[in-house]
Design brief:
There is one protein chain. The protein has about 450 residues and is an alpha/beta fold. Strands 7, 8, 9, 10, 11, 12, 13, 14, 15, 16 and 17 form an eleven-stranded mixed sheet that branches. A six-stranded parallel sheet has the order 3-2-1-4-5-6, sandwiched between helices. Strand 11 and strand 12 form a beta hairpin. The chain folds into three domains: about 170 residues, NAD(P)-binding Rossmann-like Domain (Rossmann fold), CATH 3.40.50.720; about 160 residues, 2-Layer Sandwich (Dihydrodipicolinate Reductase, domain 2); about 80 residues, Alpha-Beta Plaits (2-Layer Sandwich), CATH 3.30.70.260. The longest helix is centred in the first third of the chain and has 18 residues. The chain is about 35% helix and about 25% strand. Helix 1 crosses helix 12 and helix 7 packs across helix 8.
């Protein structure tokens, strides 16, 4: 059978890995796909031929539109990232009747609805397994492997840079800024690390996972996002003392009122498997009503791990090239006309437990004032740590863990606590999730 011709947009880290893995494992991949898959054209402004043995055998251009307009190309693989010109190239490829594989989470999170609508109209596929979790097949797992379940919630460590920083802070007692510089030197973080440390990258990925899990439209702009730049060594140490670890977690939960969609630092009990995912590794914990909790772990980035997911998509697309479009797996797991307009809950209405850290005068009655404010708003306390004051100190740290409460109630309580004359500065608040299988 005639091989499938692939046009590759981008020959950087992931593009190079895709070229190399596809070439190295060509025979095995053909056995799985039922026919050969070969890259015949690529677009790249810069690339290193020494990293890509055999690259001289394909046609390379600097203009991506030459690839998407080429009539000999069956599948376009977009690996350039970002919003533009990726969006224009993908839409042009679809308009030309070509299937698309992409690793671009920002593109799918922001423009996925437009892209999927165009693909459906042209009868082509858009596959994006590599957009979330690198080499972890999490999209296929939720979309197909868990298709019998109502997904109740999912929680993911889905940004390796942030996880590396928090791991180093915990294991080596280092400060955030010090570890961030190392992450940049190691290539884990960009020169501008905003997308990673402020949670934007994770929010893109969570948007996609939530849509597939709950059958809702992609709604990146409604995802609550909070970064890790304000996490201190003290917070990491106090969390450990209380039996928890701090992770930058993407969390989505279906409730009777709507869907929680949020990315923020989170305390997780240290005995949970996901709390022990360290370094640049990723993991996603998914709770289905039938299967219970399932955990997916692996490399969340990197040349060949991400290429693994890209090529898996290429195999899937190749297998269905002759299939009736109506019988293909829907892009967002549910049939396009069956997506639910479930509201995304505002943060004031989400319910979770909390870690609170504050600096207060070391005198009788202060702790009573704080606990009374919490009690007046229906907030019960699970644990308290009050550090001993030294002779030269007049204020001491107080750390509290609360039971589950609505965020709006906690906001009111924090505002009132910060008004106390005995409390100095702002109250540090980190959300807490037990992630039980119940």
């Amino acid at each position: 059978m005639k091989p499938v011709n692939v046009g590759l947009l981008g020959l950087g880290t992931v593009g190079g890995g895709t070229f190399n893995v596809l070439k190295r494992n060509a025979g095995e991949i053909a056995r799985r796909a039922g026919r050969g898959i070969q890259i015949t054209h690529a677009a790249a402004r810069e690339y290193d031929p020494a990293r890509l043995p055999g690259i001289e055998g394909i046609k390379i251009t600097q203009d991506g539109f030459e690839v998407v307009d080429n009539p000999d190309i069956d599948i376009v693989v977009e690996l350039i990232g970002g919003y533009s010109p990726a969006r224009e190239l993908v839409l042009k490829a679809i308009a030309n009747g070509k299937h698309v594989v992409t690793a671009n989470k920002a593109l799918i999170a922001m423009h996925g609805e437009e892209i999927f609508k165009a693909a459906q109209a042209k009868g082509v596929m858009v596959a994006f397994e590599a957009a979330v979790g690198g080499g972890i097949p999490i999209i296929k797992a939720i979309r197909e492997g868990l298709a019998a379940n109502q997904i109740q919630w999912l929680a993911g460590i889905i940004n390796g840079t942030g996880n590396f920083i928090l791991t180093e802070m915990r294991d080596k007692g280092r400060d955030f800024n010090d570890v961030l510089k190392e992450a940049q030197a190691l290539g884990y973080a960009e020169a501008d690390p905003t997308f990673d440390v402020e949670g934007i990258d994770a929010a893109h990925k969570l948007t996609i996972l939530a849509s597939i899990a709950f059958g809702i439209p992609l709604q990146f702009k409604k995802t609550f996002t909070e970064g890790i730049t304000q996490i201190t060594r003290a917070d990491v140490e106090y969390a450990e003392e209380l039996g928890y670890r701090i992770k930058h977690l993407g969390f989505a939960r279906r409730t009777v009122k709507g869907v929680e969609l949020r990315v923020h630092p989170t305390l997780i009990p240290e005995r949970r498997l996901i709390a022990n995912v360290d370094g640049v590794m990723n993991a996603v914990l998914v709770k289905g009503d039938a299967v219970g909790p399932t955990l997916y772990y692996g490399a969340g980035a990197g040349s060949e791990p991400t290429a693994s997911a890209v090529i898996a998509d290429l195999v899937d697309v190749t297998r269905t090239l002759t299939a009736d479009p109506g019988n293909r797996v829907p892009h967002l797991a549910f049939q396009p006309n069956a997506l639910s307009d479930i509201p995304i809950l505002p943060m004031e209405d989400i319910e979770t437990a909390y870690y609170l850290r504050l600096l207060a005068l070391d005198k009788p009655g202060v702790l009573a004032d704080i606990t009374r404010i919490l009690g007046d708003r229906g907030i019960s306390i699970e644990a308290i740590i009050q550090k001993e004051a030294t002779p030269e100190e007049t204020r001491v740290p107080i750390i509290l863990l609360t039971h589950v409460v609505r965020e709006g109630q906690m906001n009111q309580a924090i505002e009132r606590i910060e008004m106390l004359d005995s409390v100095e500065g702002r109250v540090k608040r980190i959300r807490l999730e037990h992630l039980t299988g119940k």
